[in-house]
Design goal:
The complex is a heterodimer.
Chain A lengths: L3 H29 L5 H20 L3 H18 L7 H19 L10 H14 L7 E3 L17 E3 H9 L3 E8 H5 L6 H11 E9 L6 H6 L3 E8 L6 H5 L6 E5 L5 E3 L23 H18 L20 H8 L5 H25 L9 H22 L1 E3 L1 H18 L3 E6 L4 E3 H22 L3 H6 L6 E10 L2 E8 L6 H10 L5 H5 L3 H6 L22 H10 L3 E7 L3 E9 L4 E9 L2 E6 L3 E7 L4 H4 E4 L2 E6 L2 E7 H6 L4 H10 L4 E8 L2 E7 L1 E9 L5 H4 L4 E6 L5 E5 L1 H7 L25 E7 L5 E5 L3 E8 L4 E3 L2 E6 L2 E7 H4 L12 E7 L6 E5 L1 E8 L13 E7 L2 E6 L1 H8 L1 H4 L5 H4 L3 E5 L3 H13 L3 E5 L2 H10 L4 E4 L8 H10 L8 E5 L4 H10 L3 E4 L3 H14 L1
Parallel strand pairs in A: 9-11, 16-25, 20-22, 27-36, 31-33, 37-38, 37-39, 39-40, 40-41
Antiparallel strand pairs in A: 1-2, 3-5, 3-6, 4-5, 6-7, 8-10, 11-12, 12-14, 13-14, 15-16, 15-23, 17-21, 18-19, 19-20, 21-22, 24-25, 26-27, 26-34, 28-32, 29-30, 30-31, 32-33, 35-36
Chain B lengths: L1 E9 L2 E6 L3 E5 L14 E7 L2 E7 H4 L11 E5 L2 H8 L13 E6 L1 E9 L3 E2 L13 E6 L4 E5 L1 H21 L1
Parallel strand pairs in B: 2-11, 5-7
Antiparallel strand pairs in B: 1-2, 1-8, 3-6, 4-5, 6-7, 9-10, 10-11
Classes of the chains: A alpha+beta, B alpha+beta.
Chain lengths: ~1000, ~170
């Protein structure tokens, strides 16, 4: 027996399905107007009608009232009494929306305000009805007038209709059914029941006897009576059998007798044409009558188009010669998702069992005659069965495609654009769970296309495109995956706009942007915090960004790609696995245990021979990075992550010692990648994913488990979890500077650098501007005075600084008779030198400084220079650390603390270095990356001085100084130019333009001195 | 009420569990270790296509490690499988969870049929196993059977796992 909740749930589910079919049909109706075929119209009518009928069972008056109003209007349409017009389809679509909302929240549906909508529908209905020739008659003996606000309490049939039924030799019955006794107890849902009735005749009107019913709960609890009016050719004798309702609750109505109820024993209705279609005398046996009924149906259908065929339209094949009932079960069977999931699991286990069987019995094949054939047979059947079972969970994408027509229609209205949506490949199937999770991302992408992609009609026309924009949604199979492409013929995405936005939102710096390819720039739209919507419209721009789309797709094991041509349009391509239950994974080994890496995360495999390790793998602090073409990829050893020891360097060394090649899987996660070192890589396998037990679930590194062919459990690695646990923070794409296209004309892009090493793997760089020369001396010349190392140099005692003493770098082995290099810096008050092994090269390179991977006082950060990870020491800071006694009194930190300096510099490298200098002297530093930004900051906040670069984008130093000096608020502000333009002539021009002073880049001491002098002069 | 207690040996101790919570005793097992998990988890095992979480009782009960020797696996029932007893007033407080759990033991001993009165409260001097994991003891002629509180043991393992996972994110 169906319990009450299930009964209601069934109603909700079926109503939702009906609503789903109505919508596209209504859109079709809107599109082609009166040319619509009767079949479609009937389908709409049927669906609304069914909802109305079933809602009656539950006392859902509002749903009933609205669907009734819609149905009436639709009946006029169906009978071609009115023509299609815009307000009509609008009202009907609004009706569908409201119904959907009410069905989704059945319990609250009675509180929905449907008044104006119902009124609009009724008004249209009344207008459409010609004259008022149609009288409704009430068939209840105590018929009260139908008031506007009340749903009909009596059964109503128009006199015309009643006559029509009778004219075709039909009987009209009033049937009273009891919810518990007739439905629940017999395991039927209201929809089942109505469908069944509709096969036997025509459902005319219904009402629920709800005098005592207070609400939905009450309705389910009490024994409710449901009254309906039913027109059929069935003989009074047969109706009780056919409907499975006791005789005493069925009454035959006789119109001739002026609406007086007639008991079924009374004479059948008389009518002038009755003879021509008089009911065949029917034997009382059920199986025979059903055959007769279907025969009768066929006779009737062509005779009168408006009296639509009586089987539900979704199941047109029901008009078979055999009984209608039998056909229904053949067609479709509803099965619970739980049962399906169980079946899927069992099928997975069966495959496993088969694999084990094959493994154990293969050696026996030669001894046992016929065993091989049996095994092959079992194997084949198992594979086939698994495939079929997997298909059970598959649903066509049309399930979600349908709603997009509506979305696009509504959007084109709201946006006053002309957009048409084309869909292809609706039959392509995907796993149910994937389909469900796809709905939101796809909606977002389609909204984006309509809102941001497709232009307004006038603009399109001017661009030589048709006024109507087109969005194409296409699904297709390729390479065992499902591709979903959303294309529009709109304006495309302009990388320049994206780049500008990304810089404005602080996602990248203008420097980084300049080094990016168009493709990479486009990918910025997937970053959190990015939104290209110039204005937030009501339609899209709802705060859900493309980053959410990408995250959702990746969660499903899929990927998103953009392709765009300016002016031509954009295509977003989603690639998805067919199912989540079976994934393709790479089997890898770590300490003899097998693990699975989902294939979707794997970008490539790299194998590094022991003798290449030195060239390919750089060791930076305790982190290992792999040089892969133009990328720097952080490395993680699976042993370390899983066993929780972070001994990356050691494990690589171990592997090299054991003369093993290093096997690295390059894994993609989010927008970054990293390399995972594993012991061995086995094969790719299709695995059945099983959820992790509760006890293991919290462990980050695993996302599931599977059972391998040998019967052992293997854990599936979760790439996100590995990233988390290994604390790989900097896995965002990093590319080599040389690889990126450069604009070399700008001052800020290139730095002259001295590359050197310290007798270890690590490489270092210092800006050449800071260095006077490099001395080479034997170690034996270094004198040790207490804890200080001193070198006699040009008559001075040069104090030496060892990098390994102050930075997190490897300590070199130095022999007594080695020679070392000493960097003698410029611009220092106290003679100091930095000990190095040797200078490698000087380069002119773009520095993209990474300040967060390795952080240490005395280190600006790291960057990739000439293909190697290179450390950038902060020389002045190192001196302060190494010789605090020389520097402690040198700055007037206290005084400076309240001083605010505006630092204007477009190159991040210099901006950072200068800011570091200023802050070390105690100043509060506010940074601006161009002149325009500087002026706006200047207008907002007070500053004591400005440090200004000359060559900058947007507004350069000359422009800034002009504006500043013109403005009475700032004409006294001290402004120092800090630039690499060092010639006297330019400096002179600078002073004339209004700069307080002119300083060459990177002399810390001089800059601070001049600044302090200027501020105190103020 | 008459109860049947399955007794078994782990790390030299004689332990017992109500036979109603036991699904089967499994002999041939290949465990897949779960790296990073506390030692309480002996690993994962495939039992006819389902993943079994194996609990190492020696670690969980802090019993002396017995090296070598073939182990057995006591497979426990799950909550849905004991509902029938609970509706009849048996195993009322037992919570076994939805996952299949296997307990690693050294070997099975006899099954005792006892009355509720035969279960004595834990003597204060019993210190082989922590008291909160014990339901009571049953006195045999010359030995004492420690009746385990399986719900408490599972809870302990779960909270150990949770703490380990928390520690994991703190790294």
């Amino acid at each position: 027996m169906i319990d009450e909740d299930a009964l209601l749930a069934g109603f909700v589910e079926e109503s939702q399905q009906h609503l789903q079919t109505i919508e596209p049909d209504l859109l079709e109706l809107e599109k082609i107007g009166d040319a619509i075929d009767s079949e479609t119209l009937n389908r709409i009518f049927r669906s609304v009608h069914s909802i109305k009928g079933a809602s009656g069972f539950f006392g859902l008056q509002k749903i009933g009232e609205l669907s009734h109003a819609m149905e009436s209007l639709l009946s006029l349409l169906r009978d071609r009494k009115i023509t299609v017009f815009r307000e009509l389809t609008d009202a009907l679509l609004a009706g569908v929306d409201t119904l959907r909302a009410m069905v989704d929240d059945v319990a609250g549906s009675e509180n929905t305000d449907i008044g104006s909508l119902v009124e609009a529908l009724r008004e249209m209905h009344d207008r459409g009805k010609s004259g008022g020739d149609e009288k409704t008659v009430s068939l209840s003996p105590t018929a009260p007038p139908i008031s506007e606000n009340e749903s009909p309490k009596t059964l109503v049939i128009s006199e015309e209709n009643a006559k029509r039924f009778l004219a075709r030799g039909k009987y009209i019955y009033s049937v009273r059914i009891l919810l518990h006794e007739d439905l629940q107890a017999k395991n039927r849902t209201p929809y089942d029941y109505i469908n069944e009735m509709e096969r036997l005749g025509q459902f005319v009107d219904s009402f629920l006897d709800i005098n005592q019913v207070q609400g939905l709960d009450d309705c389910l609890r009490n024994e409710l009576a449901f009254n309906f009016l039913f027109a059929t050719v069935l003989d009074p004798d047969l109706v009780p059998v056919a409907l499975e309702i006791p005789e005493e609750r069925i009454t035959v109505y006789d119109l001739e007798q002026q609406m007086k109820p007639a008991v079924k024993e009374t004479v059948p209705p008389v009518s002038d044409t009755a003879a021509s279609v008089s009911p065949v005398p029917l034997p009382a046996k059920a199986e025979e009558y059903s055959a007769s009924v279907s025969g009768d149906n066929q006779k009737e259908t062509p005779a009168d188009a408006s009296d639509h065929n009586q089987s539900p339209p979704e199941k047109p094949q029901q008009k078979s010669e055999r009984g209608v009932r039998a056909v229904q079960t053949e067609d479709k069977l509803r099965v619970g998702v739980n049962l399906l999931n169980d079946l899927v699991n069992l099928a997975g286990e069966l495959v496993l069992g088969r694999n084990q069987l094959m493994e154990t019995s293969t050696p026996l094949i030669k001894q046992a005659n016929g065993l091989n054939a049996v095994l092959q047979h079992v194997s084949r059947i198992t594979t086939e069965m698994q495939e079929k079972v997997m298909q059970l969970r598959m649903q066509p994408v049309s399930v979600i495609f349908g709603k997009f027509h509506r979305i696009v229609r509504d959007m084109s209205r709201n946006l006053q654009k002309d957009i048409v949506l084309e869909t292809h490949g609706e039959e392509v199937e995907l796993d149910k769970s994937i389909i469900e999770s796809l709905s939101d991302p796809l909606t977002h992408l389609i909204r984006n296309s309509a809102d941001h992609g497709i232009e307004a009609p006038d603009i399109r026309e001017r661009a030589g495109k048709p006024r109507q924009g087109k969005i194409v949604l296409r699904a297709y199979h390729e390479g065992g995956q499902v591709h979903l492409a959303i294309s529009d013929d709109g304006k495309g995405i302009d990388p320049a706009v994206v780049g500008k936005k990304a810089v404005e939102n602080g996602l990248v710096t203008s420097q980084q942007l300049a080094a990016m390819s168009e493709k990479d720039i486009l990918k910025l739209i997937f970053r959190p915090g990015f939104s290209t919507a110039a204005s937030v419209t009501s339609v899209s721009g709802r705060g859900v960004g493309m980053d959410v789309v990408r995250t959702n797709i990746e969660r499903l094991g899929g990927t998103v790609e953009i392709e765009t041509v300016a002016g031509k349009g954009t295509t977003m391509e989603l690639v998805l696995p067919l199912t989540l239950a079976i994934v393709s994974g790479l089997v890898v080994k770590m300490r003899d245990q097998v693990y699975i890496l989902p294939e979707v995360n794997i970008e490539e495999m790299v194998r590094i021979k022991p003798d290449e390790v030195h060239d390919r793998i750089n060791s930076v602090q305790n982190a290992q990075v792999l040089r892969l073409r133009d990328m720097i990829v952080p490395l993680v050893d699976l042993r370390d992550v899983l066993l929780g020891k972070y001994t990356g360097e050691k494990s690589i060394a171990e592997r090299v010692q054991g003369n093993e090649p290093i096997r690295i899987l390059i894994l993609r996660y989010g927008s970054g990648r990293f390399g995972l070192i594993v012991d061995t890589v086995e094969n790719m396998e299709e695995i059945v994913v099983k959820p992790l037990p509760q006890y293991i679930k919290r462990m980050k590194c695993f996302s599931g488990a599977t059972i391998m062919g040998n019967g052992r459990v293997a854990l599936i690695l979760d790439v996100g979890g590995l990233v988390d646990k290994a604390a790989i923070q900097h896995y965002e794409d990093r590319t080599d500077d040389e690889a990126a296209p450069q604009d070399n004309s700008r001052e800020g892009d290139l730095q002259n650098l001295l590359l050197f090493d310290n007798g270890t793997e690590e490489r270092f760089a210092l800006p050449l501007e800071l260095i006077t020369r490099i001395e080479r001396v034997p170690i034996s010349q270094i004198e040790k005075v207490r804890d200080k190392h001193i070198l006699q140099y040009q008559g001075e005692n040069l104090r030496l600084l060892f990098l390994e003493d102050h930075l997190p770098v490897t300590r070199p082995q130095r022999n007594e008779d080695d020679r070392i290099g000493v960097i003698v810096p410029k611009h220092v008050r106290h003679p100091m030198g930095i000990v190095i092994n040797r200078a490698i090269d000087t380069v002119n390179a773009v520095v993209k400084l990474d300040t967060s991977t390795i952080m240490s006082p005395g280190l600006f950060g790291t960057a990739v220079i000439a293909g190697k990870v290179t450390l950038f020491p902060d020389m002045y800071r190192l001196f302060e650390i190494a010789a605090p006694e020389w520097y402690s009194g040198a700055t007037h930190r206290k005084e400076n603390e309240k001083k605010r300096i505006l630092l204007v510099e477009d190159t991040p490298f210099f901006r950072m270095i200068e800011s570091e200098y200023l802050e070390s002297a105690g100043y509060t530093v506010v940074q601006a990356e161009n002149g325009e930004r500087a002026l706006s900051l200047l207008a907002e906040q007070p500053f004591d001085a400005m440090v200004l670069d000359i060559i900058m984008p947007v507004l350069d130093g000359w422009g800034v100084i002009k504006k500043v000096r013109e403005d009475p608020r700032w004409n006294k502000l001290p402004v120092i130019a800090v630039t690499s333009l060092g010639d006297e002539e330019t400096a002179q021009r600078g002073i004339e333009a209004g700069f307080s002073d002119w300083e060459i880049k990177l002399n810390k001491t001089r800059l601070l001195e001049k600044l302090s002098g200027l501020i105190s002069a103020e | 009420m008459i109860r049947q207690i399955a007794t078994f040996e782990v790390g030299g101790a004689l332990l017992g569990l109500d036979i109603l919570v036991i699904k089967e005793v499994y002999r041939h097992m290949t465990l897949t270790p779960v790296p990073g998990a506390p030692e309480h988890i002996g690993g994962l095992m495939n039992l006819r296509g389902r993943v079994v979480t194996v609990i190492d009782l020696e670690v969980t009960l802090d019993l002396p490690k017995r090296s070598g020797g073939e182990k057995r696996l006591l497979i426990l029932k799950t909550d849905p499988e004991i509902v029938q007893y609970q509706s009849r007033g048996m195993l009322e407080n037992a919570v076994l969870g939805e996952d299949i759990i296997g307990l690693l033991i050294d070997r099975m001993e006899e099954v005792l049929t006892i009355g509720e009165d035969d279960i004595l409260s834990t003597p204060p001097n019993l210190d082989i196993v922590e008291k909160k994991l014990i339901e009571g003891v049953v006195k045999l002629k010359n030995r004492l059977v420690i009746l385990l509180d399986v719900t408490a043991i599972l809870k302990l393992v779960m909270s150990t796992m949770e703490n380990a996972a928390k520690g994991e994110s703190a790294v």
